[in-house]
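quick one
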Amino acid sequence: MKEIVKKYTNGEMTIVWKPEVCIHSRICWNNINGLPSVFKPMEKPWITMEGASTDRIIEQIKKCPSGALSFYLNNDPEHS
Ligand code: SF4
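structure w/ iron/sulfur cluster:
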């Protein structure tokens, strides 16, 4: 079975999200140490790239416990 992969970009970086891997920990979007200006599970698309800086988004992605969220920089030659 093919894995579902969703991508969201702000031109500088791309967030890669694997919905089947997400364990709905709420870490990315809670109000205390999450980033609710970017990760909005009640909206479609659920990720708003304009909600924070690239550095802040990367910091948040690194806290995802399941590996559902990952990223790459768009100028990374491996992804061009
Ligand atoms: S932090 Fe990762 S596992 Fe938790 S809700 Fe967000 S994407 Fe899903």
